[in-house]
Amino acid sequence: MTARPETGRPLVVAVVGPTATGKSDLGLHLAEELGGEVVNADASQLYRGMDIGTAKLPVAERRGIPHHQLDVLEVTQEASVAAYQQAARADIAAIQQRGAHPVVVGGSGLYVRAALDVLDIPPTDPAVRARLEGEADVVGAEAMYERLRDVDPVAAQAIERRNVRRVVRALEVVELTGRPFSATMPRREHLQPTVTLGLRLDRGVLDERIARRVARMWEDGLLDEVRDLERRGLREGRTASRALGYAQALAELDGTLSRDEAQEQTTAMTRRFARRQESWFTPDPRISWLDATDPELVPRAVALVRAAIGDNGGHG
Prior knowledge:
Layout: E1 12-16, H1 23-34, E2 36-40, E3 67-68, H2 81-97, E4 101-105, H3 109-116, H4 126-139, H5 141-151, H6 153-158, H7 164-177, E5 194-200, H8 203-219, H9 222-231, H10 246-254, H11 259-281, E6 287-291, H12 297-311
Parallel strand pairs: 1-4, 1-5, 2-3, 2-4, 5-6
């Protein structure tokens, strides 16, 4: 399940999977049972004030367990995997120095891997990016994809040809580093001993959970939350304003979507997002999968982690 540790550091624990499977609750239980602290790996929960639409665990429900990488960005700031990687790894190291287990919880696949895996994040240059995006607007997605296939066929094979954003990013990296983008693509190698638990649900059950969650977001006051965030610059934030639920709530406030349409669109897009999360996490052989509806979920999860701790020299 995990490699032998080279140090006496407490084992890193991760809880991953699609949205609405109960990752936050399981992460909290594990931190409480094992003596740990939670490190968020959900990109939208990095934002201050984005609470209802991200299902962020309220402070009063965290049982005194420290949570890191929550509420660290203003909605006007752009989330960055590179910045997150640096901050999350610093949190993990500090938690281990306190003798506790870091419990990394989230469904943003690249953020999880940035925290846990050997992953070299290549540089970016806004001017180069803007030029390539401009070229893509002129010549089209297909021509840009063919250009990438010429310079980095391995990366092209891994990128969907209509995904202009990723094609442009790959070309940007090739131009800036002189190396193929594929050389920086993540590989499944943990930075240090880690046990990863994944939560899964029957697709029909997951779809129903997502629909209920979206309806509850509106009932709990998402529009009021978005009105407040709007005053704090939400519309100017490139990342935050596009978050699921928030973009639709803004459209409802603008009158371009009705409430029913906003909820239906949020539900449909969240279901598609959950499918992408499944596609990201399912092929990873390092993940031990658990049924999110199992009444014995918490004891099973704790047992898996304790077994991993035993395998790793008993530190825990």
